[in-house]
Amino acid sequence: MRTTPLAEMPVRGTAPCRFPLVARVAVRITAPESRISGPAGAVAAIWLHCQAKSNQAPNMQTTYQNQQWFYVKRPDGRVGNEHYELRKTELDGNLSANEVILRARIVSVDPYIRIQQHERNTYDVPHPLGIVQRAGVVGEVVASASPLFQAGDWVSAYSGWQLYARCHQSELTKLDPGAAPVSTALGVLGMPGRTAWFGLTEAGRPRPGDTLLVSGAAGAVGSLVAQFGKRAGCRVIGIAGGPEKCKFLTETLELDGAVDYRAHTTPAALSAAIQAATGGVDIYFDNVGGPITDAVIPLIKRRARIIICGAISQYDGGLDTPDLGPRFLQHMLFQRATIQGILARDFAHRMDEMLAIVAPWVKSGQIVFQETYVDGFEQLPEALNSLFEGKNTGKLLVRV
Amino acid sequence: MRTTPLAEMPVRGTAPCRFPLVARVAVRITAPESRISGPAGAVAAIWLHCQAKSNQAPNMQTTYQNQQWFYVKRPDGRVGNEHYELRKTELDGNLSANEVILRARIVSVDPYIRIQQHERNTYDVPHPLGIVQRAGVVGEVVASASPLFQAGDWVSAYSGWQLYARCHQSELTKLDPGAAPVSTALGVLGMPGRTAWFGLTEAGRPRPGDTLLVSGAAGAVGSLVAQFGKRAGCRVIGIAGGPEKCKFLTETLELDGAVDYRAHTTPAALSAAIQAATGGVDIYFDNVGGPITDAVIPLIKRRARIIICGAISQYDGGLDTPDLGPRFLQHMLFQRATIQGILARDFAHRMDEMLAIVAPWVKSGQIVFQETYVDGFEQLPEALNSLFEGKNTGKLLVRV
């Protein structure tokens, strides 16, 4: 496994990664040798860079030395470098009308990528083999034949794991670096934020006084769900792996409690710990599935809402041979509970509705959006792999 | 096991057990030696009896020779006679103001009774030991000190497994034998009907063209769900055990298909058969749980609604040691499906709303309400036991 050792940057102060403080605060690093780095001011640096370049003339270069990660082999367990090929290619920069050249700067790695690597249909057709890995990206327009974009504009797109892409203007969303750091378009103000917002508000239906339990609570979606839940007046308990993450939950996110699932070795012990922390669960926002969810389900209260947002513990397994867990549907009956599966894409058309509420919170520093950065385009497959090791806190991003 | 052999009555004609035909049609009997009998005209006989008695003078008797089934031991598997004691007692017939003496005529046996026999809380506290088994009853008022009831009135009550009960008027619901056979107060126009109606309409949200799959489709609730689904414009497929029940589903209830789960010995074969019959499932109304539900879940379509109404396959098991089944929450996510547990009691306050729609259908013969009768008060525990053998079609009732 290749790593990119980077000097661990000091955390300047104890303030969380709220927007106004972003240039002063580093993402926490827990593993000294980790290739996951969190240099202070990373986001702000990009943001300032973007502002500096926004008045430059369009780039007239006609060929771009590109790098692309091709998805070439379906994993039968953990995904890694062996399922990808890094290719150096040339991108023809001659633009047709309404096209632009996008230079990626921040590439997203998300758990859903692993789902789409299965051979059989899941919520989408399988990601084809032999093409560039699809992914969300934030980058700069470096050349434009579009009336809507000019060189220097920051945009988000779904252009995948490649340094350069030729995009039609319809594929781009312009970002306003003055409104929020551009990286947030891949996190709190992007797909993960939308997932958290609509999953909680639409399927969770939080009421003040409800006890909200979030699994994967230190993750990209979970950490937002937890904070949105607090703002809805819920008592919020998070489940995460390890004391550092639990400290993040209670001290940085100021949740009402945290359960370290790694500290409890049997399902019964974990269930008892969750019961002690929650006193029973009105809303369970599930990002992980598997044994943690097994431990939670007996603790749900009457008319509980269970939101199935992810099942990261299960993504490595074969879908055709699911593993076994305790049957629990009888308990759903007794409690008249609801389970609902939700996907961000179902709320894509309501993005503005979410942004109208959440963006001001981000701008005024009321929401913590933790980001973990990996540096280097060549790190992308290993960064994806690391999602399933539970090392990152908040949104995992790769700077390229 | 005691049985009460009764002459098998011929089925007079092929018409289903619709209201106007009730005196002419017998409940089907499949097992020649079965203690479950279905004499023709049973319901109508009671109904006519009730009409004949309705003008009699109040019964002035002051002591009633009673029989009561006491629930004395918690079953650790199948329930039967060994968990009950039949006691002959005397009931003091001296009434206080607003009290009546009720003589039970039809006693209900329902799967939920078994749930409440567990020691630990389920959706209610456990049924106490050492008291008369609670159950729904239809009977006659034989003496009254209530201004609301007179001797000869037919009522429904929750007076349990006893021949006579002294009840406060507030515990009784007066029945109109001219509107429907009184037995329907324990079936289509009672708790099972309410379960079916609100489970389907509130949690199932049927749309014309949806494919509705019902497990336990020949049962008290399932057979009504299936018919309500047809009236909502759904394509309805039922799952039941054995060719007779499947014939009932397709010929009597006129469903669009039926799957005999007993004809498929592996989960994969059952799943393939259900897939062939349904082509995918928009609404799954589940009364059984366990391996049948395991076979259905991979077949649900996008935004499917799964209603957990019962899990009769699981009621015998210990709740503290649930058995294992395939994990499936990931599939809920992919399909953005909803699972909802529902209980009849949550809709008790909306009974009138259901009756306003369903009672006219019953009266005009548009709804089949199959009833299976067991004769004899002493048969009650064994009748309850038989529910879990899947022998009855429609509502199982004991005539006492």
Description:
Two copies of one chain form a homodimer. Chain A has 400 residues and is α/β, with parallel strands linked by helices. Chain A folds into two domains: 34-176 and 370-399, Alpha-Beta Complex (Quinone Oxidoreductase, Chain A, domain 1), CATH 3.90.180.10; 191-345, Rossmann fold (3-Layer(aba) Sandwich). In chain A, 24% of the residues lie in helices and 24% in strands. Chain A is built from ten helices and 18 strands. Chain A has helices spanning 42-53, 112-115, 191-204, 222-231, 243-252, 267-278, 290-296, 329-335, 351-363, 380-387; strands spanning 36-37, 63-71, 84-92, 99-108, 131-132, 137-144, 154-157, 164-168, 173-174, 211-215, 235-240, 257-260, 281-286, 300-308, 324-326, 338-341, 371-375, 395-399. Chain A binds chain B through residues 115, 122-123, 286, 289-290, 293, 308-311, 314, 319, 322-330, 332-343, 346, and chain B through 115, 122-123, 286, 289-290, 293, 308-311, 314, 319, 322-330, 332-343, 346. Strand 16 of chain A pairs antiparallel with strand 16 of chain B.
Characteristic key phrases:
homodimer; alpha/beta; Quinone Oxidoreductase, Chain A, domain 1; Rossmann fold; 6-stranded parallel β-sheet; 18 strands; 24% strand; disordered N terminus
* Low-confidence segments of chain A: 1-59
Structural class of chain A: alpha/beta
Beta-strand residue fraction of chain A: 15-25%
Largest interface: A-B, 35 and 35 residues
Annotate the secondary structure layout:
2 copies of one chain form a homodimer.
Chain A: E1 36-37, H1 42-53, E2 63-71, E3 84-92, E4 99-108, H2 112-115, E5 131-132, E6 137-144, E7 154-157, E8 164-168, E9 173-174, H3 191-204, E10 211-215, H4 222-231, E11 235-240, H5 243-252, E12 257-260, H6 267-278, E13 281-286, H7 290-296, E14 300-308, E15 324-326, H8 329-335, E16 338-341, H9 351-363, E17 371-375, H10 380-387, E18 395-399
Parallel strand pairs in A: 10-11, 10-13, 11-12, 13-14, 14-16, 17-18
Antiparallel strand pairs in A: 1-17, 2-3, 2-5, 4-6, 4-8, 4-18, 6-7, 7-9
Helix pairs in contact in A: 3-4, 6-7
